Amino acid sequence: MRFTSLTSSDGVTEQFFTLDDVPGVLWTPQAAGPSPLILLGHGGGQHKTAPGVVARARRYAAAGFAVVAIDAPNHGDRPKDEEFGRIAAGLRGGGDPGALVAAMHAHLAGQAVAEWRAVLTAVRRLDEVGDGPAGYCGLSMGCGLGIPLIAAEPRIGAAVLGLLGADGLAGEAAQVKVPVRFLLQWDDRLVPRERGLALFDALGTSDKTLHANPGGHGDVPAFEVDDEARFFARHLARSRANGSSAKR
Amino acid sequence: MRFTSLTSSDGVTEQFFTLDDVPGVLWTPQAAGPSPLILLGHGGGQHKTAPGVVARARRYAAAGFAVVAIDAPNHGDRPKDEEFGRIAAGLRGGGDPGALVAAMHAHLAGQAVAEWRAVLTAVRRLDEVGDGPAGYCGLSMGCGLGIPLIAAEPRIGAAVLGLLGADGLAGEAAQVKVPVRFLLQWDDRLVPRERGLALFDALGTSDKTLHANPGGHGDVPAFEVDDEARFFARHLARSRANGSSAKR
């Protein structure tokens, strides 16, 4: 793990890094002990410092969490492969979006899960990151890559997911056994309402809450982000190191 | 309005009263100025001091709200009429529950709405109750009687509703224009999931959030009640009198 830059503002330290070929960012609360960790997965076509990712990261860090985001395969600063280009062209060409989005996530998931697990191992070695259960937050593609990650990764203890339908995911969703907050946008033109409800239904955990709000795919209200920080605080509290309870 | 008893415990004062023929209870935070008001409607077959009502009232009062609950017509300490008995017998006899519940609420709503409006007027005259917008919280029958109340009553500024289907309510639900938190239980045997989703969909406000949790009709998680207090605090803040911001 190689850190390439460090800046601090508003009580939050932001460090860019690479781990093998994967570029990432780590946000940590300044002047805190080891903080519980949240992994932040971006949406399709976005990257590790997309505005919505940075806004969540800074909000979580202000609430006392260490937060890490990486560029997903074929996204951000990373090269694109042929198969990715083929599926992306299909999406632009107006094919069945549910099936094409599922094919895209299936194409990326194997590599993405392995990369997240390596990042998790590396980041937990840092002094500023606690070694208790981590949180995962990912919507849309971040949900599509997050569900296989959570199904495979016992070090994740709670997740915020959503903005995605059940296509291709029901099997792995059933293996999700940690507390989940699931976001659904009631007027989402990219994700039919009943497909989103079906993915919530398919989650294997009995500790799950659906939050649905009016508006389109990108219109998740700001108050939900505040509430996510409380959700993670409730479920990751046991990972807080000594003295860190004063961090909120 | 005639008060008949007063007790205080854990920082909350509880006063029983009658207004004309309607028996009620008022909970207020001790040693506070005028507090924003929440009306609390109980479920079918319950009454103003059912355990779930009292638990919510004390939680809200601890968060700085004045809270009032009354016995609905035909409930609690009040006499039962013939039509009520006829519909209740139909429900016990296994008729179509959606239609019978809607008939029950329609039978009670006219009287219940008039009574709530009179209580609202009387309670707002008290020194310990603020005169800003009030909140309304009612689930199941409390939702069925609350929606016509909110549609008719401009002094209500935010509401927690849910645990009910759209049967017979779509028209009045469309007239609800205040912020709404809507609770749905994912495995509710009394309210089919799609009927509950249809009532959320029918609400006329664009500021509404659905919270769905696994479990049956009576299994709303305790963390939702905490979250309701925050929801009301966010939306009724303007009704707080001077100095009351320290009340939470």
**Residues in helices of chain A, as a percent range:** 25-40%
What is the element string of chain A, with H for helices and E for strands? EEEEHEHHEHEHEHEH
What is the CA-based Rg of chain A, rounded?
A: 17 Å
The named CATH superfamily of chain A: Alpha/Beta hydrolase fold, catalytic domain
Largest interface: A-B, 18 and 17 residues
CATH class of chain A: Alpha Beta
End-to-end gap of chain A: 28 Å
Compute the number of helices of chain A.
7
Describe the secondary-structure layout.
The structure is a homodimer of 248-residue chains.
Chain A: E1 2-9, E2 12-19, E3 22-29, E4 37-41, H1 51-62, E5 66-70, H2 82-92, H3 97-124, E6 134-138, H4 141-152, E7 156-162, H5 170-174, E8 180-185, H6 193-202, E9 208-213, H7 222-236
Parallel strand pairs in A: 4-5, 4-6, 6-7, 7-8, 8-9
Antiparallel strand pairs in A: 1-2, 2-3, 3-5
Helix pairs in contact in A: 2-3, 3-4
Family (chains A, B): Belongs to the AB hydrolase superfamily.
Protein name (chains A, B): Dienelactone hydrolase family protein
GO molecular function (chains A, B): hydrolase activity
Provide a descriptive summary of the structure in words.
The structure is a homodimer of 248-residue chains. The first copy, chain A, has 248 residues and is α/β, with parallel strands linked by helices. The first copy, chain A, has one domain (2-247): Rossmann fold (3-Layer(aba) Sandwich). Helix content of chain A is 38%, strand content 23%. In chain A, strands 1-2-3-5-4-6-7-8-9 form a nine-stranded mixed beta sheet, with helices on both faces. In chain A, a hairpin with a 2-residue loop joins strand 2 (12-19) and strand 3. In chain A, helix 2 (82-92) crosses helix 3 (97-124) and helix 3 packs across helix 4. Mean pLDDT of chain A is 93; it is low at 239-248. Chains A and B meet through helix 6, strand 9 and helix 7 of A and helix 6, strand 9 and helix 7 of B. Chains A, B: One of its GO terms (molecular function) is hydrolase activity.
